[in-house]
Amino acid sequence: MMNVHATLSPNVSRLVSRMITVKSWFAVIACLIMAVTFFFVVIFRYLFDADLFAYEEWLLIICFWLYFMGSAIGTFEGSHVNADLLSYVINDPKKAHIRAILVTAIELIVTLALVYWAVLMLIDEISSYPRWRTTIALRIPFFVPRLAILVGFGFMAFYSALHLYARIRTGPEEATP
C-alpha cells in the first residue's frame, strides 16, 4: 500500500487524517449502537415479551451510514475488495506503475459516475419535498439514507483522486498494488 500522506502538503495530510479519524469514530459508535440495540431487542423480546418499537427503521439508517463511511475508509486504505490479478503477474516496476495509475483512474471515473447518479437521486428526492417518501412508523425521510450514499461515494471519489495524484507524483519505485 502506498503512503498517500507523503505526497500531500502537511495541511491537506492533516485534514485527510482528521476525516479518516472522524469516520473511524463514527464506525465505532455506529457498531456500538447496533450491538446495544440488538441486546435490548433480545431483552425486550424474550424477557418482557414485548417489542422495541420500529428499531429496524432507525437502525437501517445507521447501517447505511456505516456501510458507506466504512467503504470510504476502505478506499483510502486500499483495503477494499478488488479483483486485480495483474499486480501479481507484472514484475516490471514501470509497467506496474502504469497499471496502478490506470486502475486508479478507472476507479475514479466509476466513482464519479456513481456520485453523479447519487446527486440525481437526491435531486429527485428533494423535488418531491412535501410528499417525501418516509419510513412507515417513525416517518424518517428516505433522504437521510440516500444522503449517506452521496456522502460515501463523494469520499470514495475524493480518496481515489488522492491515490491517483499520489501515484502520478511518485515514480515506478513506489508503485505497489
Topology at a glance:
Elements: H1 10-47, H2 55-77, H3 86-89, H4 93-127, H5 143-169
Helix pairs in contact: 1-2, 2-5, 4-5
Summarize the structure.
With 177 residues, the chain is mainly alpha-helical. It has helices spanning 10-47, 55-77, 86-89, 93-127, 143-169.
Descriptive notes:
- The N and C termini lie close together (6 Å).
- The protein has one domain (4-174).
- The protein is elongated, with a radius of gyration of 20 Å.
- With 177 residues, it is mainly alpha-helical.
- α2 (55-77) runs parallel beside α5 (143-169) and α4 (93-127) runs antiparallel to α5 (143-169).
- The longest helix is centred in the first third of the chain and has 38 residues, at 10-47.
- It has 5 helices and no strands.
The radius of gyration computed from the alpha-carbon positions, rounded to a whole number of angstroms, is 20 Å
- Overall mean pLDDT stands at 91
Helix content: over 70%
Provide the number of structural domains.
Answer: 1
Q: What spatial form do the alpha-carbon principal axes imply?
A: elongated
Got a strand count?
Answer: 0
Q: What is the string of SSEs from the N terminus onward?
A: HHHHH
Helix count equals 5
Query: Could you name the ranges where pLDDT drops below 50 across 5 or more consecutive residues?
Result: none
Largest sheet data: none
Structural class: mainly alpha
| Distance N to C terminus | 6 Å
Strand content: under 5%
Family: Belongs to the TRAP transporter small permease family.
Organism: Roseobacter fucihabitans
Main location: membrane
InterPro entries: DctQ (IPR055348), TRAP_DctQ (IPR007387)
